[in-house]
Amino acid sequence: MTAAAAQPSITDRSVINVNPSPKTPEFGPRQRRKQARPQELLDAALALFVEKGFAATRAEEVAQRAGVSKGTLYLYYPSKEELFKAVVRQNLSNLIAEGQELVACHQGSSAELIEDLMRVWWQRFGSTPAAGIHKIVLAEVRNFPELAQFYTDEVMIPADRLFCSAVQRGVDRGEFRALPLHDVAHALIAPLIFTAIECHSFGACPVRGGVTIDPFTGLKVHLDLLLRGLVTRDDRAPT
Amino acid sequence: MTAAAAQPSITDRSVINVNPSPKTPEFGPRQRRKQARPQELLDAALALFVEKGFAATRAEEVAQRAGVSKGTLYLYYPSKEELFKAVVRQNLSNLIAEGQELVACHQGSSAELIEDLMRVWWQRFGSTPAAGIHKIVLAEVRNFPELAQFYTDEVMIPADRLFCSAVQRGVDRGEFRALPLHDVAHALIAPLIFTAIECHSFGACPVRGGVTIDPFTGLKVHLDLLLRGLVTRDDRAPT
Amino acid sequence: MTAAAAQPSITDRSVINVNPSPKTPEFGPRQRRKQARPQELLDAALALFVEKGFAATRAEEVAQRAGVSKGTLYLYYPSKEELFKAVVRQNLSNLIAEGQELVACHQGSSAELIEDLMRVWWQRFGSTPAAGIHKIVLAEVRNFPELAQFYTDEVMIPADRLFCSAVQRGVDRGEFRALPLHDVAHALIAPLIFTAIECHSFGACPVRGGVTIDPFTGLKVHLDLLLRGLVTRDDRAPT
Amino acid sequence: MTAAAAQPSITDRSVINVNPSPKTPEFGPRQRRKQARPQELLDAALALFVEKGFAATRAEEVAQRAGVSKGTLYLYYPSKEELFKAVVRQNLSNLIAEGQELVACHQGSSAELIEDLMRVWWQRFGSTPAAGIHKIVLAEVRNFPELAQFYTDEVMIPADRLFCSAVQRGVDRGEFRALPLHDVAHALIAPLIFTAIECHSFGACPVRGGVTIDPFTGLKVHLDLLLRGLVTRDDRAPT
DNA sequence: CATGAATGAGACTTCATTCAT
DNA sequence: TATGAATGAAGTCTCATTCAT
């Protein structure tokens, strides 16, 4: 594994940061506050939704955590449902763009590319509260039909395309065996999401005797197995 | 892969069937109902919890679906929370025992053993509404501290133990490379659960253009990759 | 005070015992049980109503305490309200008859007569669970309009008449000063009932630092004060 | 009896009025309501609890009578139980202080002091809906263990102390015979409370033929008897 | 007669949402 | 804009009462 995470194309601006200009300096603190409101509300909502789920999170709690009153929340989001959808959109859109870039300009082997994809994803997203979103989405999609379509279009399909392209690259270059593309992509995505969700569910509960695995290490082992199964010939020294 | 599913010890009686032989068959319909009530209520609750989540499922709905009135539900379960816990217990507790047996008496290679474990799991559980439980548990553990412990003790640890023993068997017999045991077990369990959750979340939503993968096929591909990465030497013909 | 309680006219058959023939010997235990049911139910209800009040007493509890099933209770009393009224009637009717007899044949002074009345009342009633009934009646009359009339006719008026006659006797014999009859009777009744109620409310609660007075001693002091205020001339030696 | 009720220390401002001077008078009607709400709710609750008892009073009724909606009640009191306790506190806590003051500065004889105590009590409390509270407390203490302690500490003990001090004063000045202090105090308190309870139970029911006594007159007769029994020598002309 | 499973009206309480200030 | 008091629909749970066995 080479240090792909240091690639210049992957800048430090957070993928989560969506608020276009959080630091416009020509406004007073009052104005700045007003500008920041939606973001603060979304952050508060994100944290609470991830912690307690959609139904168990009260609108007033979100407002309090964002430092505003209950009424103000409804000035920005017309309902709790819309707030939830905004949180999902905010945190999961634009998730894939960075990865596309990475695939496009990666110099190393395809195995390294995929390892890099995983590492970047974990740094930018998996180890972030935003990853907890997927947990709630899974639990709530069936109650939010519009979300299913949005999420499919915005997250699932791009993610599939991203990983498919990386796998295809490996196949095209003779590095990977030719296997059903989507299934392989799925196998690569699964551990990422699964691990992230675990961190935000059981990982956050104080249980005695639980099977505790360092998420990132676990991910690497999982990925090593998958890649070793995927490559036509393993050039690496045996572990 | 050999047909381990035909092993005599793994019979076809459903793990869910809990009242196989009511002692006296001469009961009137009232008595017969009474015997069946808990199971009917658990089934109704399972279906609704998986579909809508814990909070969004109303107690009265569960009762209606089971064909009884609101009050009757509370005759059997003292609260919605207890009902939920009963659903979890009912559907997951006996899940692991069968697997243990399979590991104990399996004749084939360890790769085959793990493939058989997966197939049995899918038949008995994955393709069943009960597979949606993990989704709810993930979403709700942080609101049910006791559930976290129960689920850890009753499901997570036994499942880990089960897969660890299967992997260890492979290592001991020289079939598998020696890798961190728990991480490998985790890598084997992850796709099972992940697939189950997907089936009961996005898989149940009508989206256009979604990345539809046959769950069982996807599982097999995932497992093939993992096993190929795990074995010291692949005896099978290239796919 | 002389030992009027030993007067022959006051026999040992309880004033509470209303069941006409509890000991008819020619029935088997099943029959006897059936005969005793109403009484057992009333006793159970009495105890529970006094302890918890009308609303907080559940029909099923009463049945359980009487050793029968919920349905059986409704075989004897068509509703919880009727059960309550039956308990009241059972325990408070016929309450006065004995006293009337006592007034009619008392030989001593009127002060002694009243002291005897009090002592008998306390023995037969005040120190009995039945005395707790008055507490519930007070709390519930306004919800049971019919009960108000019944209670007035059956208890209040006879009690007033009883004590008025005793006071009148004292006035007629020149022992008591001539004062408003009903008010004096009321003053004599008040401490009896008040004390009984206290025993069944605060007296039954575990409070620290409570003002604990022995009920019977308190009653005697109260009565002594009243009588001393009532008599035209006190023949007793100063206390 | 001298007119102790005219004592300057005992003014006519109601003991119930708790928000005498809202600090800023320029509030809109919304604000003004907010200030008054707790009192309005307590008044409504008092009336209904006294009329129907604790259990038979529905939270919504209280809210309606106070002119607000169900939810608003819960903005001020977290449960019906807390509302009940608040009613008790509000109406009884400040009850004793006035009496203490009266004892401290009374100029007349001890008999007159006690008569004044009674008269003030009746004016301030006995003739007020608040007098019905003791009835509910008696009926409910056994269901509210904490209430028993609170009521004992806040009402019973202070009342006992108050009357004991008045009696002791009489004994010290040679006006009263030396009798068991607590028992005498109890005898003085009993008619007060007993009368109050009667007014709010049978006294509020439309019965024909009931023994109707003017409560205040009845109280006076009762007290006259007690005092005449208590004094060492009666200076008053015979009634 | 006796049982106890079943019912469903009704009570308490919560909380998303509104709106006067 | 911002507030937070007020609302009332909705949900959980209880329990008096019924009725098939």
Structural summary, described in words:
- 4 copies of one chain form a homotetramer.
- Chain A has helices spanning 29-52, 59-66, 70-76, 80-92, 97-105, 110-126, 132-140, 145-172, 181-200, 215-230.
- Chain A has 239 residues and is mainly alpha-helical.
- The two termini of chain A are 13 Å apart.
- Residues 1-25 of chain A have low confidence and may be disordered.
- At the A-B interface, helix 7, helix 8, helix 9 and helix 10 of A face helix 7, helix 8, helix 9 and helix 10 of B.
Annotation field: number of helices of chain A: 10
Mean pLDDT of chain A: 85
Major pleated sheet of chain A: none
Classification by helices and strands of chain A: mainly alpha
Radius of gyration of chain A, in Å, reads 20 Å
> Which spans of chain A have pLDDT < 50 for at least 5 consecutive residues?
1-25
Quaternary structure of the protein: homotetramer
Overall shape of chain A: it is elongated
DSSP summary, beta strand count of chain A = 0
N-to-C SSE string of chain A, H for helix and E for strand = HHHHHHHHHH
End-to-end separation of chain A? 13 Å
- Strand fraction band of chain A? under 5%
Pair with the most extensive interface?
Answer: C-D, 63 and 63 residues
Question: Helicity range of the residues of chain A?
Answer: 55-70%
